[in-house]
Specification:
This is ABC transporter ATP-binding protein. By secondary structure, the protein is α/β, with parallel strands linked by helices. The chain is 34% helix and 29% strand. α4 (108-121) crosses α5. The longest helix is centred in the middle third of the chain and has 16 residues, at 167-182. The radius of gyration is 24 Å and the shape is elongated. Bound molecules: adenosine-5'-triphosphate (ATP) and magnesium ion (MG).
């Protein structure tokens, strides 16, 4: 079932097209990934979906309803974890959650109960009496997530929740995302870390320069570069002319070398090992190792844009 539908969405800031005609849908119960480098338009997309920003063009539907017709009703269904931490440093963890709870209209025992539950989910139960200014970066992120969960949203929208935090907090957040999803929460997860998106997401939209350049499951995305598998051959030393000899092989698309490594990009799924080894056999050198690169989202991005996901 489609929970959220984004249709030909566009957002321009003066002459910058932050989001340039994107379309995708998020199904109930999935973890939907928005993967893209800095400036791809991820946060702008998130801000529009969460009704905080008006689009220049296009529409967003939640359960079939235009979200801008009744933003208040939509906000009740959504929990938003913004990229910038939204907490009061001089207040304790508990007081911060109380503040956010009040904004959502939660009061009294119900609020207390919810604060307890969300603090437990993010693993901050014993830190609620500490002032947020004494929290680590990771703890602040986790409190931010707790705040977004207070009103029991149907969908959780997270904007790069693991940037700049310690590995332990990062793992905790990734576990929390999986755990929430297991219990039925739909999640939109924004990141420029492809490993996280690969690990978490049911379907992934790769964004670049305001556009969705690819969309699908990890397997579907990796299939885009199926015909461009890479083989890395490490030599004791690279014999002269070998690069030229390898280039002649029918299945070889491209030959690169770096130090003692030759990197072959293959045209089809075919590895042509026999041909490759034949060419090497005729030389004085020997192969120390053969490494077939596992196709990754990083490689998909590189293939589609000619640039690395991370600069
Ligand atoms: N309020 C604004 N005014 C002008 N330009 C903006 C504004 N917000 C975003 N932009 C521009 O729009 C583009 C997309 O920005 P956005 O923050 O959505 O990207 P992002 O994918 O979230 O990047 P990051 O990974 O750095 O968070 C960028 O070029 C950015 O400079
Ligand atoms: Mg952003």
């Amino acid at each position: 079932m489609t929970l959220l539908k984004v249709e030909n969405l566009k957002k321009s800031f003066k002459d910058v097209n932050a989001v340039n005609d994107i379309t995708f849908q998020v199904n109930k119960g999935e973890i939907f990934g928005l993967l893209g480098p800095n400036g791809a338009g991820k946060s702008t997309t998130i801000s529009i979906i969460s009704t905080l920003l008006n689009p220049t063009k296009g529409k967003v539907f939640y359960r079939g309803e235009d979200i801008f017709k009744n933003p208040k009703a939509i906000q009740e269904k959504m929990g938003v974890v913004p990229q910038e931490i939204a907490l009061y440093p001089t207040l304790k963890g508990y007081e911060n959650l109380k503040f956010w709870g009040n904004l959502y209209g939660l009061k009294g025992n119900n609020l207390k109960k919810r604060i307890d539950e969300v603090a437990d989910i993010v693993g901050l139960k014993d830190k609620l009496k500490t002032k947020v200014e004494n929290y680590s970066g990771g703890m602040k992120r986790r409190l931010n997530i707790a705040a977004a969960l207070l009103h029991e949203p149907e969908i959780l929208i997270m904007d790069e929740p693991t940037v700049g935090i310690d590995p332990q907090s990062r793992n905790h957040i990734l576990d929390t995302v999986l755990e929430l999803n297991k219990k039925g929460m739909t999640i939109i997860y924004t990141s420029h870390y492809m490993e996280e998106v690969e690990l978490l997401c049911t379907r992934i939209s790769i964004m670049d320069k305001g556009q969705v350049i690819a969309l699908g499951t990890k397997d579907e995305l990796v299939n885009i570069i199926k015909g461009h598998k890479k083989i890395e051959l490490t030599f004791d030393n690279i014999p002269p002319n070998l690069l030229d000899k390898l280039k002649i092989i029918e299945e070889v698309e491209e030959v690169d070398s770096k130090d003692n490594i030759i990197i072959l990009t293959m045209k089809n799924g075919d590895m042509a090992f026999k041909d490759i080894l034949d060419k090497v056999m005729g030389t004085e050198s020997s192969i120390l190792s053969i490494d077939i690169k596992k196709p990754s989202l990083e490689a998909v991005f590189l293939h589609l844009t000619g640039r690395a996901l991370r600069d």
